[in-house]
Amino acid sequence: MKNLNDDLKKHDFKNVYLLYGEEDYLKKQYKEKLKQAILPEDNSMNYAYFEGKGADEHEIIMLCETMPFLAEKRLVVVENSGFFKVKKDEMGSYIANIPESTVLVFVENEIDKRNKVYKEVAKKGRAIEIKIQDERTLILWIASLIKKENKKVKESTIRYLIEKAGDNMESLSNELEKLFSYTLDQEEITIKDIDEIVTVRLQNHIFDMVDAVSTKKQKKALDLYNELLALKEPPMRILYMLGRQFRQLYEVKQLKSEGYSKSQIASKAGMHPFVVGKTMVQSDQFSLKKLKEIMEDALDLEKAVKTGDLKDITSVELFIVKHSS
Prior knowledge:
The structure is a single chain. By secondary structure, the protein is of the alpha/beta class. Helix content is 60%, strand content 8%. It is built from 16 helices and 5 strands. Strands 2-3-4-1-5 form a 5-stranded parallel β-sheet, with helices on both faces. Helix 3 (57-65) links the parallel strand 2 (47-51) and strand 3. The longest helix is centred in the C-terminal third of the chain and has 23 residues, at 235-257.
């Protein structure tokens, strides 16, 4: 992202950009920064936006070829087109010849680096991966937003917020807005405020359930399950998430046993380093053999529900009781 920040600072833009990766909040932020920098007066005459897999590459190319009206640049934004996962030879060939008067910005979730469009973008402009941010970056970002509101907060409280709301910046931004409104007359945001107002994500409940199962706290695990049911979470989704969490425990424990560090495990498993750290601790409660047994049991219960041999609500109860006894 440093190159992109330098371009914005110097006001010296490439003709094509690709913003891709998991962190939607930052992709949206950088898309807007590019728009404001290239078309500072919100000049709609020189702006075009395409979204979805139905985006027409011929129309996009035609607009890229159109000279800007009373301005230096024309901006064309293409979002979630799928051009970087399928064969688009025309677009791939065109990118090398984009006129200097046009800036073409792609915003995508998934890409294939073998794809011709990707290769041409990387050659002609900038292909920038925007990943989920690490814990330290999130702490500094949250602290800066809280400071702008003239409020105080302890670092431990910020860590608690991340644990409870997750590491998705869009979700964290929404939760912070709720906290700012809730603590309007307060100088400091506290853990009590977070408990009162912040929405607990499903993954946190699942993590706590697995914790309860691993420490044989059966009542707590069942109480957490009933809380999720009260929140209208489907039992089969809960069972799937439990199975998924145990698969992650198995993968992390296996990699740890092979001598990989936390950062290496995060890279290999495609997980956030912060999540890996918590998962490594949790995986210590189980042997690889036991984790494999639990994963197979989750699959068996899922099959039993699908074949009508078991009710969905009962399947999760059986899973919890069996492995927390």
